[in-house]
Amino acid sequence: MIGPRVQEAAARLPEVPAYLYDLPALDEHVASVRRALGPTELYYAVKANPDPELLRVLAGHVDGFEVSSAGEHAHVTDLLPGVPVALGGPGKTDAELRLPHHRLHVESPNELRRLLAAGVEADVLLRLNPDLPVEGAALTMSGPFGMDEDGVAECLPLFGDRVRLLGLHTHLASGLEADRLLGLARALLDNPYEEVNLGGGMAVSYESPETRFDWETYGTGLAELGRGRRLRIEPGRALTVYCGYYVTKVVDVKRVRGRAYAVLLGGTHHLRTPATKGHDQPFTVLPTGRAEGRVAGPVTLVGQLCTPKDVFAANAETSLAVGDTVVFEMAGAYAWNISHHDFLMHPKPAFHHLRA
User: Fold this and answer.
1) What is the dihedral of CA 28, 199, 121, 158, to 10 degrees?
2) What is residue 19's predicted lDDT score, i.e. its pLDDT?
């Protein structure tokens, strides 16, 4: 259930659909994560949400930003000049390899050879994709991401004075609890390198928005495992997802063959997360609509798109009427920025930021 401050702000929005970001809540959450991590460095994965106001809040707590393209690099460095940036991602262009950065995550021997040919200086972490079992993950980063142990061995003789090897980068899976991530960290730290980036992958539960990743346990475990080493993590979703809300209104309610539907302004072209992850997006209904024509019981909340996949939540136990405001929670990561904005050419959502 969303708090009264967000409810009041959502009900007062001049136009919907709109995104509403709670900046004080983000500031408090990331500050608590920073405290829990102790000596472990914290980078934010910009791909989760590059909203400028969110990045400004994050900059007060994180040690740097992980970017995965020239566009993200320009966005972050223009907004926050001088901030440490780690450049990752498969398929880097020659121009991207020449970008200034704090760390470069190299994905293959061929990419390293192109970096050497570019004649630039670089501090490199080799992205390792080890053959480790990852049980219970929402998503595993296998296949083309990084290299296996043979690829790392092929890279080792290539380093010199201008391109320096500092350590390893890994990101194996998403959606793992603290104990499982610590187990992976224990296995991944069985190497001679003094710097290791363990990536992100912290569990986020859309079914239970109140449940949070155990940062205290994770931070304590990493501090014990990393004695004498420089450890870094780069979460995205787990930092910003809770501060974002997608606010819209009911434009139609109906029953079709006994099944109740509420049609909302906007759709998954604005908030792609439930369609991408195959879940019901958590929501709160503000009764701002008509008294008559209300549907109750199991109701499926859909958008305006001409596709049966445009579903926010299926068979939700709720009550809805035309004009009601619907506030979707956990819309602060992998939401607007991964959505197919121009399908059917509906208007873009507005963006609002709650401040202290």
Assistant:
1) 170
2) 98
